[in-house]
Amino acid sequence: MVSQILFIVLTLAAVAWFSYNVKKVIRNIRLGKPANRDDQPKKRLMTMLKVAFGQTKMFFRPVPAVLHLIVYAGFVIINLEVLEIMIDGIFGSHRVFGGLGIFYNFLIGSFELLALGVWLGCAIFLIRRNIIRLKRFSGVEMTSWPKSDANYILITEILLMSAFLLMNAADAKLQSLGAAHYISAGAFPVSQYLTGLLPDTEVSLVAIERGCWWFHIIGIFGFLNYLPYSKHFHILFAFPNTYFSNLEPKGEFTNMLSVTNEVKAMLDPSFTPPEGEVGRFGAKDVNDLSWVNLMNAYTCTECGRCTSVCPANITGKLLSPRKIMMDTRDRLEEVGKNIDKTGNGFDDGKSLIDTYISREEIWACTSCNACTQACPINIDPLAIIIELRRFAVMEESQSPASINAMLGNIENNGAPWKYSPADRFNWAKES
Amino acid sequence: MSEQLNFEVPTMAELMAKGEEPEILFWVGCAGSYDERAQKTTRDICKILHHVGLKYAVLGTEESCTGDPAKRAGNEFLFQMQAMTNIEVLNAYNIKKIVTGCPHCFNTIKNEYPGLGGSYEVIHHTQLIQQLIDEGKLKAEGGESFKGKKITYHDPCYLGRGNDVYEAPRKALEALDAQLVEMKRCKSGGLCCGAGGAQMFKEPEKGNKDINIERIEEALETKPQIIAASCPFCMTMLRDGVKMKDEDQNVTVLDIAEITAKANGL
What we know:
The complex is a heterodimer.
Chain A: H1 2-29, H2 41-53, H3 62-78, H4 80-91, H5 102-130, H6 144-177, H7 202-226, H8 234-243, H9 257-267, H10 291-299, H11 305-309, H12 311-314, H13 321-342, H14 352-356, H15 359-363, H16 370-374, H17 381-395, H18 401-413
Helix pairs in contact in A: 1-7, 1-13, 2-8, 3-5, 5-6, 6-7, 8-10, 10-13, 13-17
Chain B: H1 12-17, E1 24-27, H2 30-34, H3 36-52, E2 56-57, H4 68-72, H5 76-92, E3 97-100, H6 103-112, E4 121-124, H7 125-134, E5 150-153, H8 167-174, E6 179-180, H9 211-221, E7 226-229, H10 232-244, E8 252-255, H11 256-263
Parallel strand pairs in B: 1-2, 1-3, 3-4, 5-6, 5-7, 7-8
Helix pairs in contact in B: 3-11, 7-8, 9-10
């Protein structure tokens, strides 16, 4: 009875703490400007199913794709087991679905195989990060916290899977000993090989089985509550992020409506722009970005596929699309904490541009869309870079001198070079 | 086969005066108009249009920058000023269909003009060439033979990833019976030439290599005789790269329109 109460209290606490943090994250995302991503619900759903559920974009790199698929499938499917754990935990039952017979055995058997897969997958991921040291996992933005974050996640998953398998091994041994409560249920294709490691007395076996059961479920609660602080948030955000992702051709940039109204008024004096405050052009700070940009930042799992294909980064420039996303999240978290402390409207004198992202970074971008193509969950670093450029150019008139010259040429001659518009058709006459 | 055009390029103004309408407007673009190397491609596109007897016209001096480099550089004002002025001209001529000689013009007019009141059917010149080949109007005969020649094609970002046009340029090359070899990074994984996003008009930021060198090294790995381009900016970057690598005696950079014109003896 005590353990049931303890379990219920723990569950409620875990859910409450998680909801509290998620609410804060959603509040932070809502600091962003509106963006219309409600159109074409069918196409959006299909995109989510294909890209997030089906992980189609992962398969551009098959080796990590297969490993990731195993870990992902393991994570999703083994969590069915959590349903049983919840019921057992609340009602004090044991393997409540055991009555399903062969089907139950099939389920537990599959979970065990998947658990082994997840265990191996995470071990290989750890080796790739820490021993082989793949280039993709390094870079200026990969400081000690992002690296530790990744390792904590992988180690936790290995521990959870170990506990799950050890629990089953102890359970199987207890079943064979005919211990009370331990009904004969489940198939143990993996953990049967672990029984040899276990003691033979019923008391110690029960202690191991219960210990692992509690470790497993507390681990899951802990993991859940770790997500809002971690890059691992992508396991949840991948779904809304792909659903609300850009469906237009990648080459298309948004037309700014606020500018359209001003240009129309300039070209046609009879046009009166609609009432309303014209905000800042482009983005100086995170709250000038759209909520989609901000959701992108929470979704990024820092895998570095974007940076590894970025032509600027490959050739040694400062720009790294992954850093753009990590900076945006860090700054947004900072702004969120300021709001928690002092309410809205507090100015800490910092901004996304300059404090976090330098001018040198934003001007190194070729807008080639390699980063957006490479992202397995449709994050768009380019959109943020362009918003920062818009701020630099339209609000501050600060762009490299040669860019200013190009803009001046377009304005005066209708071409980015200093040629006379009268000569535009000369190509047809000269050889 | 002279560089000179032996026919007049019709302008919209002339056609309008005669009370005629073209089937398609050829949007030349700034590079195609002013850049000496790109002008050759422009003339070859005209030769192809003339050869197949498609009724076309250009805007001539009435054309102006689409605003693409301004938009990518973050100057939305200038972009929309250019766009609205151009749309006014295009709509006044009742333009329905446009072929562009540049992926940047193509992307801008096709995707960004509709929201500002300019909706047209827009295709890139490689798509037109593919269509003409498919319809049997354009063959690869009567000119230089490209049979068995090793050609590698560089995907321009705003045609490839930007608008998912990967097949049309390749089909145009396949029609030549040439040996098409792909670079390691191609199609949706293609590497930028380094010119996009207004980089064409500025010095690169500090780094350890220029992007076009990175790209040309990869292109040269395929041991090509020809590097095929379909963007005037890629053309500049690739040619500079070939020169820097001292390979300009062995490797030629040609636009797909130029290759097609050569193959047809135009």
